[in-house]
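Title: Comparing notes on inverse folding

I've been comparing how different people in this forum approach sequence design from structure. To keep things fair, I'm posting one structure and asking everyone to reply with a full sequence. Here's the target:
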């Protein structure tokens, strides 16, 4: 292994992971996948690896990658969360909120993207209520 590569690996190990929101953008159709992670570098590397291996969990994204090729996709950081001095500070709530803002802004579902639209709070509650009613009806029949 050459010295430059060793130096880069050592720097990567010593630098703290940066949390934030990212997108994978199809440069042909402009469809995007938006996500968030506590370690942006790590998650982008994982997505790239899974796409190259043909094993990405998002089938539509994988299909477009296979058809168009790697050079037709951009891996971009949309927003980062600044790490605070407190090592016990958990930024997960901030990260979830930040991702929801970007999802609301970009709306990357249906023909615009690869994400599945998240249900609103009201839709989630209606789904839970419907499920409970159905469960109760089945129990009453027995």
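Reply #1:
Here's my take.
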């Amino acid at each position: 292994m050459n010295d430059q590569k060793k130096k880069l690996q050592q720097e990567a190990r010593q630098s703290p992971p940066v949390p934030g929101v990212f997108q994978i953008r199809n440069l042909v159709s402009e469809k995007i996948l938006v996500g968030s992670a506590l370690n942006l570098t790590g998650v982008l590397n994982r997505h790239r690896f899974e796409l190259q291996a043909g094993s990405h969990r998002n089938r539509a994204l994988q299909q477009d990658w296979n058809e168009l090729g790697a050079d037709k996709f951009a891996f971009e950081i949309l927003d980062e969360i600044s790490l605070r001095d407190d090592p016990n500070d958990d930024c997960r709530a901030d990260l979830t909120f930040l991702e929801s803002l970007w999802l609301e802004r970009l709306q990357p579902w249906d023909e615009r993207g690869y994400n599945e639209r998240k249900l609103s709070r009201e839709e989630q509650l209606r789904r839970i209520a419907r499920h409970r009613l159905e469960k109760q009806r089945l129990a009453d029949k027995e």
